[in-house]
Amino acid sequence: MSTHVFVELASDLPGASLGRVVFELFTDRTPLASENFRRLCVDDGEQSYRGTRLHRVVRGLLIGGGDIVNGDGRGAWSIYGTDIFDDDPERIEVDRAGLLCTATLGKPNTNTCQFFISMAPAAHLTSQTIVFGRVAHGMDVLRVIERMETLPNERPIYEVRIAHCGQCKVDWSAPVDPLDPYPGFPEDHPEVLEISDKMEISHAVRQLGNDLFWKGEFELSLRKYDKALKYLEEDLLATPEEEELLMDARVTCWLNQALAWTRIGRYQEAIGILDTVLHHRPGNVKAVRRREIAVEALKMGDREALPKVVRTHAFRPAPRPFLLSRRRLTLYEKPLLE
């Protein structure tokens, strides 16, 4: 039976939504490193990962943390009564993203409380570390952290910390969404994706967002639109024609995002997204109209005023009322999603 532990990650970055990362530990293959990490996840007090920060982020390489002594990558401690402990006999190659590894002093048998997670294959690190686990769930969370802005010393500008940690139940298994089997980021897809593949996945995820929108689950729909956009990020290998298609797909996602932000009364976010659309597609009719709606609603300062604003703009009639607000105001004009 596999051993799984978790860390709950939080950040000071405004608007950042992180969450839980679950690791499967290779307890049979690397017992020393695995038990050291497990104990620091489950124990309370000073000798615990709880409250410590991720002090190093290198995009395309690794995310490092676990310094329970200094919090900056200079500390060392272990459960074995010494600051450092020996290597496990088996050496596993750092050949993919999502591997949990010991951070060492750069030479054999110098493992400590510190760890890092590989964010890409890094064979050159194999001789300097012990791979003792893998990310079983939550790679999306780590990709968000990987993209955070950092200081020259590779520390995130906004602190990222382990708010809580522990061991999962024995029967833990990764949650599966049969409607959305795609990784949160294209680089974590098991296959090498062509641009056409990315666009197809993005379209499927966007449609899931639309389904959630019409159910009134606007915040969940925003997550799907955000995920769809990740598959449409700029590709340096794209031809001008392909980049134009990618931009068209981005615009569609942005327009839907803006509509969802408007529905939950976050007009400023909607305006910002629509400004992005108009930067890339000046004069886009939907962007202009939706921006006018958001600006007028923002001036009124009341989400409940939105029906009055919306009725002055071009919307398609709906066969049934659309529930809009906490006061159960209804809107009979149904906005166009794409």
How does this model look, in words?
With 338 residues, this protein is of the alpha+beta class. It contains eight helices and ten strands. Helix 3 runs antiparallel to helix 4 (218-230) and helix 3 packs parallel to helix 5 (240-263). The longest helix is centred in the last third of the chain and has 24 residues, at 240-263. The model is unreliable at 311-334 (pLDDT under 50).
Order of helices and strands: EEHEEEEEHEHHHHHHEE
The first-to-last residue Cα distance is 46 Å
Give a short account of the largest sheet: 8 strands, antiparallel
Helix content: 25-40%
Low-confidence stretches: 311-334
What do the pLDDT scores average to?
89
Derived structural class:
alpha+beta
The tally of strands reads 10
Q: If you consult CATH, what is the topology of the largest domain? A: Cyclophilin
Computed CA radius of gyration, to the nearest angstrom: 23 Å
In one word, what is the shape? Answer: elongated
Tell me the count of domains: 2
The second-level CATH architecture of the largest domain is Beta Barrel
CATH superfamily of the largest domain: Cyclophilin-like
Strand order of the largest sheet: 3-4-6-5-7-2-1-8
CATH hierarchy class name of the largest domain: Mainly Beta
With helices defined by DSSP (H or I, 4 residues minimum), what is the helix count? 8
Pfam family, one: Pro_isomerase
GO biological process, one term: protein folding
GO molecular function, one term: peptidyl-prolyl cis-trans isomerase activity
Catalytic activity: [protein]-peptidylproline (omega=180) = [protein]-peptidylproline (omega=0)
